[in-house]
Structures are given as structure tokens and as C-alpha cells.
Amino acid sequence: MARRGWRRNLFLGGVGCVGLVVLLVGIAGMALLWAGMSYRRMGPPEPEAMARQIPLGPALAGESAAAGRPPIRLEIDLRQGMFTFRPGEPGSEIAVEGSFAGEYFELVDERGPAGETGQEVRIALTPRVGYLVRLMAGLTHFDGEHPNQLTITLPPDVPMDLTLRVEEGVSELDLGGLDLTGLTVDLAKGEHELDFSRPLARDLPRLDVRLEMGEGRAFNLGNARPGELRVSTRMGDFRVGLAGAWPPGSTSTVDVEHAMGDLTLLIPDEVRVDDRSSSKVLLGGSSSRGLREDGSKSDDAPLLTISATTSMGGITIRRY
Asked: What pLDDT score does 134 carry?
């Protein structure tokens, strides 16, 4: 009797597992069918040319700082496309130009009232349809013919607290010369390059950079002159360069966390590295000759305290 009950329970369990698999396959099939029907109804994505100016009101041309007003709080969140960021001319507005597939994506800009914490501005390119529909439309392949190609121009003389996210795509970001009071950069799932081609208008108290899932490059981070720099990289091939106009006699901390992939951290020859700097590796490889100090630099040279942590990946730290 016990053996018969055991066989019965095993049979019922097997039937249940098969039923669950059939149910999941059926749901997946229905999702694919629905996505195919949606794509046929909408048709291939067609790029729609656009040019949009986003006025910032009384905070232009450095008036915020002169009048004691808080900076603009600007959030930019872009997904699936090819994006270029560059500084504009003094006195200009925020400009968004290029093209995007309007049937599949929505480009929004929202402005909140100016309060004690500053005026809030949000720019976002977000999908109108699900991932499977976009997959069938070929919107997950990024090449020169992708319909979403936007250039964002930022005014260099408007104080801004900037949060910038780009996901699933290709981006080139030059933030050199901007007047930033705070900056967080989050780049994921694609090929991204961040550069500070010129020193910022003021020193940043803190700079946060995250590069994830793909290829990422961040150059001339010293031109942001951050008092605290935090870099996080994960799942990909990354190169981070600390060259730039670090203020003479300044001290800054650089915290780097890397996981799953390869990271090259480049330290300019003209800065000093604090002897408390370290590189720790868990399940990976490390070459950290760049942390060694030869004592040949003046006491007025910028001093960086670097802490690098790597797990399940490789890190190379060298001078250049």
C-alpha cells in the first residue's frame, strides 16, 4: 500500500510538472503571437525628425548663482537608441534634436515649479510598447540606421544638479565645461563613452559613475575635479581614465568597485597616490603597479587616495 501511494504521488507530481511546462509554453506562445500581431498592425518603425527647445526660465546665464537661487535639478533618462551629449553655447537653452520612432517610443519633457530645492526638469525617451514588439521591430540592434538618434545640448552657464541615465544603446557624452553642482551618470547595456573634454565651471563635491553590461569608457574624470569619485563597473570591458585638471594641492578619494569582466584604471603621471591606497581582488586577477609612488613629485601635486575592489574579474591599474 505504501509503495502504491509513493508511485501515485510521483505520477501526480510528474503530471503537475508537465502541466506547468505546457502552461508556460502556452503563455510564451500567446505572448509571441500578440507581439507579432502588434508589430504587423504598427508596421516598421519610421524615424520622425524633431527639434525641441526646453526653456529653463529665470535660471539662465548663471543667474541662479548670482541671485542665490538653487541650481536646476535636471534628470535625463534615455533608452534604446544612439545618443550624443554635448555642451552648447552660453545663453542657450536645453536642446534635443534628431529623430525617434514615435509609434514605438515617447519623448517627454516635464518641468516642475521652482521651489527651495530648485526647478526640476525631466527629459525621458521611454517605450510605448513591450520588449517583444520592439524585438520584432529590430529596435534592439544599434547601428547607423536606428530610428532613435538624439543629440542633447546642455547650456554651459546654467548651474545644474544632473542625473543622467542611458540604457540599451550607444552613447557619446561630453560634459566638459558645464556648470554642475552634482552629477550622477548611469550607463548600461551597450557601448558608452563619457568624457570631460574641458574642466567643469566648478569643482564637484562628488561624482558617481556606473558602467554596466557592455563596453564603457570614462575619460578625463580629473576635469570634474571631484572631492569624492565613486566608480562602479560590472559585466563588461571598461576603461577609466583619471587625467584632467586636478587642483594643485588638492586631495580626493577614488573608490572603484568592479565585478565580472575587465577593468583598466589609468592614473596620470602628474598626480600623487596616497600610500594608504589599495587594490583588493576576490576570484580574479590584478596588476596594480600604478598604485606605487616613486616620490619624484612635488608636495603640491594633487593627491589621490584610491581604493579598488574587484570580484570575479580582472583589474589593471597603471600610470600614463
From this structure: 78
CA dist., res. 253 & res. 274, Å (int): 9
Q: How remote is the C-alpha of 131 from its chain's centroid?
A: 20
Evaluate if residue 31 carries a pLDDT over 60.
no
Q: Residue 279: which of 309, 253, 314, 245 has the closest Cα?
A: 309
- Report pLDDT for 129: 87
Among candidates 244, 292, 291, which has minimal Cα distance to 270?
Answer: 244
> Which residues, at least 6 apart from 295, have a Cβ–Cβ distance to it below 8 Å?
none
**pLDDT tens-digit map of 67-119:** 556 789 999 999 999 999 999 999 899 999 999 999 999 999 988 766 566 78
3-state secondary structure of 13: helix
Cα separation, 296 vs 272, whole angstroms: 9
CA torsion sign for 6, 7, 11, 14 is positive
What CA–CA distance (Å, rounded) separates 301 from 158?
Answer: 31
The pLDDT tens digits for 159-210 are 999 999 999 999 999 999 999 999 999 999 999 999 999 999 999 999 999 9
Cell of 303: 593627491
Q: What sections of 90-223 are H helices per DSSP? A: 131-136
pLDDT of res. 246: 95
Residue 266's beta-bridge partner residues?
241, 318
26 CB-near residues (< 8 Å, 6+ apart): none
Q: Show the DSSP H helices in the chain as ranges.
A: 2-42, 63-67, 131-136
Measured between alpha carbons, how far is residue 246 from residues 147, 185, 201, 227, 300 in Å? 40, 20, 13, 10, 11
- Give the Å distances, CA to CA, from 137 to 129, 133, 148, 151, 238: 11, 6, 13, 23, 30
Average pLDDT of the residues of the chain: 85
Cα three-residue angle 117-204-316, rounded to 5 degrees: 135
Q: Which helix (H) or strand (E) holds 98?
A: strand 94-101
Would you say 54 and 94 are in contact if contact means Cβ atoms under 8 Å apart?
Answer: yes
